Every structure is written in C-alpha cells, then in structure tokens.
Amino acid sequence: MKSTYLLIQLDKVTLRAGNRSLFPNTSWTIETGQHWAILGPNGSGKSLLASALCRQVQLSAGHIRFYFDGDGRSRSYFERGEVVRISPEDHAALTAGSYHQARWNSIEGANSPIVADLLTGESIEHFSAYQVGPTQISPETYRQRRERAVALLGIDHLLGRRLLHLSNGEGRKLLLARALMQSPHLLILDDPFGGLDIESRRALARAVDQLITDDGPQLLILTSRPDEIPGRIEQVLGVDRCRIAARGTREELLAGPFAKRLRSPEALSTPSEISFPKLPDRARENQPLVELKNTSITYDDVRILSAVDWTVRPGERWALLGSNGAGKSSLLSLILADNPQGYVNDITLFGRRRGSGESIWEIKRRIGWVAPELQRHYLPSSPCLRVVCSGFFDSVGLYRDSTDEQRAAARQWLRVLADEELADRPFGTVSAGEQRLVLLARALVKNPALLLLDEPCQGLDSAHRRRILHLLDALCLQTSIALVYVTHHPDEMPRAITHLLELDRGCVIRCGPIEQEIV
Length: 519
Fold this sequence. Notes:
Blueprint: E1 6-17, E2 20-31, E3 36-39, H1 46-53, E4 58-66, E5 83-86, H2 89-94, H3 106-110, H4 121-124, H5 139-153, H6 168-181, E6 186-190, H7 198-213, E7 218-223, E8 235-240, E9 243-249, H8 250-255, H9 257-263, E10 290-299, E11 302-312, E12 317-321, H10 328-335, E13 346-349, E14 352-353, H11 360-364, E15 367-370, H12 372-375, H13 384-389, H14 404-417, H15 432-444, E16 450-454, H16 462-478, E17 482-486, E18 499-504, E19 507-513
Parallel strand pairs: 3-7, 3-8, 5-6, 6-7, 12-17, 12-18, 15-16, 16-17
Antiparallel strand pairs: 1-2, 1-4, 8-9, 10-11, 10-13, 13-14, 18-19
Helix pairs in contact: 5-6, 14-15
C-alpha cells in the first residue's frame, strides 16, 4: 500500500465575501490518494469553497497550506497548473469577446479557432503571437499529454471543429482535455456532467474512474446531484448555508440524512394554486408559430441539420431531444432568428416567411428564451430587477429606461416565480437556481407566444428543478403558451409535454404527439 501524506490543509479557516464571514472556523484535509466530492444545494457554498482552494477568496482567519513538493513542507501558494478548476463559466470564457449569436454566423465562424488550436502548450500557457521564448514545458511533453487526453475523452473527431460551433457538452470535453494537459496536483470539476447527454455522462464517469485508476490528478467534484458522484470517488463533503454539514465516505454520506434531504425537497403547491399575471389567450389562433420545411444547415461542408420538417402550433408543448451535437441548438438558433442560414431555408415564423422584410426583433418579441449560456452573459453586478426588465427589449443587459408599468410587471413575475426580495440583489450574488428563475421571469415578462427553454434545469439542485417543472406545468395548465423544452434528462420534463421532436446527427428520428412515456 502506498504511503499517504497531506496534500492540502484548511486549518480553522473563515472566508470573507464582501462584509460577510462564511465557512467559520472550518478545518478540512485532503491527503494524497484521496478523491473528494463536495455535495450541496444551489447557494450552499460549494463553488466558494473551491474558490478558496484556488486562492481566489480572501481569508479572515486561518490558513490554507499546500504540500505539493512531497517533502513534508507546506507553502501558502501554488504554481500555475498545480491546481486547475473547470467551471460552467469557462466555456463562455473560451469564446470571450464574441456575442452569443456569433456562433451561427458562418463568416465569423470561419475565422474562429478550432479545437486543436486550444490543445497546444502555447495556448495553455497563454502565449501571445509575439512571444518567442520557449514554453515552460517541452512541446513533446504537451504532445504526449494531448494524445492521452484526446484518447481518454474520445474527442479526436472534434480536433478540426470550430470553437464557436461546439455544443455545450463538446465544450466541456475540450476544457477537461486542456486541464489534463497541465498535469495538475488537484483538478476541480464544478458540475462536470451538466449539459452532457446520457452517453457522454457515462463516458465522462468512466474517464474519471480511469483517471483515478491511472494515478492521475487528485479529483474534487462539485455537484448538487448525489447520483452524479462517480463510483471511485470515496470521500464526500456535504455543505449547506456556507458551512460543512456532513462529511464521510461516499457510502456513508449518500445513505445518510444529508443526501436524502437533497433528493427529497419540500412538497410544492398544486399547479392550479399558482396565480400568474394575465397572459393573452391564443388558444383560438390557428396560424402555426413555427414552420420549417426541408430545412438544412451546413458549416465547413459539415451537415448540421438535414431536411428537417417541423411545425409548432399555439398551445403545443414540445420536448426537443437528442445527444450532444445532434443539432438541437442549431435548430433553436433558426427559431430565434440568430442564424443567417434561416434566410436560405423555407422557414416561416409567426406567419411571416424569413427574408420577407421582417426584423429579427419582431420575431424575438414573440419568443421567451432561457438557456445556461444566457445566464453567463449578464453582469454579476446587474440587479435582478434590471435583468427581468431587459426581457421587454430582448437585450442582454438593460440599456434604456424601463417604465413604471414594466418595473411593476417585472416585480410581479419575480414574486410569482421566485421572490420579490431578489429585485434589488445583484444577479451574481444569488444562487444558480435563483438566477434561472430570474431568467424565466425575464422570458415571460413580455407575454410571449412561444417559450424556448434550452436545458433550463442544467446545474440546478433537486429543489430548484422541481420548482421550475412545477411552475411550467402550472403555466401550461392556466395559459395557451406554446413550449419547446430541451433536456438531456427525459425523466425531468414537465408533465404538460404533448409532442416530441428527436434529432440524431441532424436528422429527425421521431416527430409528433407523444403516445407513450419518453425514454
């Protein structure tokens, strides 16, 4: 048996965030050979504790010590690459400087980097084009690490793909490959399975197990889902309200009361008991909201969508399913009028053929949209009320004055969906679950005819997932709004779903009313 020694030690630490003291008098040690998960609901402090390990949070008391040299001596710092963290925000950072519509513009896409460009020593060490010195690690070492990472994650087919055209799950795999190329002592994976289809989740879990088997980096996984802790992660830290609430082996903690509370949150009211602001009744409208006829999308001679026929009518509630890279996001980009290839296809939105003189803002006015990528584009300092009010103008951020009537409507939607007390709080200070509810209020505040929800429950704990699904069922029960709901978890969909569209490598494999349970 290998001897173990301290790797990281938190000694009576208290963290400071603004004027608040969090995780008071906290002690925790990670030893060599140990792989941990931090489990907790949204807003519990998982990411904050990980940020402390990355030396990104100020301490008001205590010490964090790193024993990375293997000689028993500690230091209060680490060198670049010794601790690497991958968070949901990092995919947005990879495409920093671009707006979210840019991924659909073929001209801009042709100028964007490819995946292979991000898997080089120069890229990882952030070399500029004007630096002429050598990288800290030899190119041959980086090449060998890249080969191992690409093989482990099965992403050889992505090396030539444009960065802007990666799906959410494909972007996660790229980030993990970059992290493995740095050969860190500690690799922190924040919500690593979010945005992945079921096969990709299984593949990533196998990759994590293989990393542990191969004596790869020590792993720390952050999640709100007890079932997403890989089998070879043997230690779990439970956190709640910025305190350590439980700790122990994986088996002990997952069988204990802490994990049970995460799986079984409090009961909710019935859908009929929720009182929504009045929405227009479109039940008698016969005109389709969306009509796609023989629609195809091609980038760099690669067919993304192939001959799609699809019609969405008022009051229909669709589930849009498919694996990572199946074409779901590309399909939504056509409906949102973000994709220029909409003009070369036979697409009619809200009764008007694309290219007949309509503006994209006329289309967006009829659509409410929620997606994880939207959440990442808002300034953390923006008050939640301004985030909701931006829905009136279909802007990411509020760049004009809202009226008293609009602010009152925004507060009303916050009150129904989340909590009106969020109105004045900065968007970046509320939990991920609360942020998603704020964005749902932003989508609904303008009374849209069609609601597009692209993985609205990604990264959320059980309580917030249930809350969103419950609200959607109530909304569909009380209104005639049409819904398109994208998910990689078919067991987590609103009961109100009436129709199914499933894609596989850009082709429609199922389309029509639901006649049996979706699996």
